Amino acid sequence: MLLSITTTHRPASDLGYLLHKHPDKFQSFDLSFGRVHAYYPEAGDDRCTACLLLDVDAVGLVRGRSPDQDFLLAQYVNDRPYVASSFLSVAVAQVFGSALQGKCKDRPELAAAPIPLEARLDVLPVRGGEAFLRAVFEPLGYAVEATRHPLDEHFPEWGESPYFSVAVRHTVTLSELLTHLYVLVPVFDARKHYYVGDDELEKLLAKGAGWLTRHPAKDEIARRYLGNRPSLVRQALGRLVDEEEAGEDESPEKQQAEERLEKPTRLNDQRLGAVVAALRGSGARRVLDLGCGEGKLLRELLKDRQFEEILGLDVSVRSLEIASRRLKMERLPDAQAKRLKLLHGSLTYRDKRLEGFDAAAVVEVIEHLDPPRLRAFERVLFECARPGTVVLTTPNREFNVTWEALPAGQFRHADHRFEWTRREFQDWAAGVAARHGYAVRFLPVGPEHPEHGPPTQMGVFDLAQSR
Length: 467
Known about the structure:
GO terms for molecular function: metal ion binding; RNA binding; small RNA 2'-O-methyltransferase activity. This is Small RNA 2'-O-methyltransferase. Keywords: Magnesium, Metal-binding, Methyltransferase, RNA-binding, RNA-mediated gene silencing, S-adenosyl-L-methionine, Transferase. It holds the Pfam family Hen1_L. It is built from 17 helices and 14 strands. By secondary structure, it is α/β, with parallel strands linked by helices. The chain has 2 domains: 193 residues, Hen1, N-terminal domain (c-terminal autoproteolytic domain of nucleoporin nup98); 215 residues, Vaccinia Virus protein VP39 (Rossmann fold, 3-Layer(aba) Sandwich), CATH 3.40.50.150. The strands form 2 sheets. A 7-stranded antiparallel sheet has the order 2-3-4-1-5-7-6. It has a 7-stranded mixed sheet with strand order 10-9-8-11-12-14-13, sandwiched between helices. A hairpin with a 4-residue loop joins strand 3 and strand 4. Helix 3 runs antiparallel to helix 7. The protein is elongated and about 90 Å long.
């Protein structure tokens, strides 16, 4: 199978810098399924083409495996060596890995710049025909050219095959082009050559960040990419919906409204201080920051050496990118970098990566969840992840009347789905604690009003056996 990438950006030969492959060299790489060759049939100032040729060892792939009892030759007689498939995605990740990640030490400004690119695939199996091909590529801005091949030119009555020669053109970054191909080529093939598990779900969400959420065919893309596994598809679509909802509220005006409201009392500083103190008092060494946002609590946790492992999780990829930049993760000393990890994920779907931690912080998060999702959040955190201590904060609705800048009846933030009174929060927290074997205590955060209480209410949950 052959992938060709062409640019007319001048000087076009800079494509070699972006791909980290010299235009004058023919390079070969041994991968698990065969060999991959990278070369340039043309490399001038006006036009440059890079090719990735896969030589799949169809016999080697099945050597030693149990034969297919229905058709003993099926493992040997197939289209695997000739058509673009998940093998191509693996090859792109292995051979063009730096370009896929958008990294280019010699031309960083070019790696970040949209340039005219054409990718040609010879040949691509498209289960769903040209209509599906266009429905997937065109919403991403690509111009599509497709030529369908007959099953056999000598027997036209056999009809058309599912195989196409496909060219897609767009002005995008090379990283975007490779990412789209990495995800979508297996989608057109509708099958993979390896086991589809939880790792594939994380790959889809990571590589689909920023574009898959808004894609009109995201349901079908997720279904095919995840091998029609219902549980994985449900998780993927749920997390994509969560990310879409989180992205709806990212305008600076909306983000700053709550900060302006709380700034005179420096409430956020007091809230973070109270949470860190509670975590420190629990004796926790491995800590989760669930709904970590742009990393304000993570920064405070990093300052305290008691916390040996810190994991921040958020549904918004953009927030995680901002957190990484603000925490200067690429420049952290090795000792600090080993303590901190950022993950993309949802609080309403079980995630095994969250299990085994001493404590979890959930700071001003639950009020952003739709009330019907609270039970799912409860199970994910208190039943499945089950840390020894959970420190959870949420606004006290009763305090809102003390803020003159907040119109009566309005929430503090445009994205809040609810805000609880002290009694409502305590009733919910007591029910959660009783259902999952925790004891809960309540602490005020911020200046207390004699009638309306504190602006923030905090619940500290401790597993009964750990007390």
